[in-house]
Amino acid sequence: MLKRNRLEEGWTTLFLTWAMVFVAATAIVQSNLISGLHVIPFVGTIAILVGLALAKSRFPANTAHLFSLIYGLFLVLFFVGTNLPADMTWRERVFDMLLRQVEWLRDAFGGGTNRDGLIFVIQTAFVFWLLGYTASWYTFRNPREWRVVVPTGLVLLSVVYYYVGPTPLSLYLAAYMLLSLLYVARTYLIAREKSWRSGGVRYERTIWSTFLRAAF
């Protein structure tokens, strides 16, 4: 039972991966740019979990990515669709969102303007689906820590940079920087532990907690 519930990279790694995406998503919600953004943290959280499941599965990379896009499209439409009037059926909501997206693309490529706020929510939600999924993928399947830290960090930085409201979003950026440092340190230790195990090197299993005590 313990082995079945054990994550090779550690549950702390999963928490840090989730926390970085969640902090960035929460910053966007707190910016109050438009109504409906409250769904972003939920989308990011589910993307992390789906990414973990697919990363740990035996599916080839291309198959896993395809499944992620399908799941992501479904869940984004579901969560964003909850912002539409309750008297609309789900079929009507889906067609309404797809039609709005088509109109936005037509205006974008036609040189026009489109101020439909729901499109911003849809696109932001899908961006965070990709951020959450790739964060898990590049943590648990194909470790590339900077592909986890940099994309989400750039999104958060752009929000903080262009935000002119009263909410202190810089605090979220500071929290993200701390989490990202812990994440990079954690993934580095994981890589070292794997090499030590493969080389038969004995090491202290509590090295992560020792590192945290030394850091703080």
Furnish the topology, listing elements before pairings.
Layout: H1 11-30, H2 40-56, H3 61-81, H4 90-109, H5 117-140, H6 145-162, H7 170-198, H8 207-215
Structure description:
With 216 residues, the chain is mostly helical. The protein has one domain. Helices cover 73% and strands 0% of the residues. It has eight helices and no strands. The protein has helices at 11-30, 40-56, 61-81, 90-109, 117-140, 145-162, 170-198, 207-215. Helix 1 (11-30) runs parallel beside helix 6, helix 1 (11-30) runs antiparallel to helix 7 and helix 2 (40-56) runs antiparallel to helix 3 (61-81). The longest helix is centred in the last third of the chain and has 29 residues, at 170-198. The protein is globular, with a radius of gyration of 20 Å.
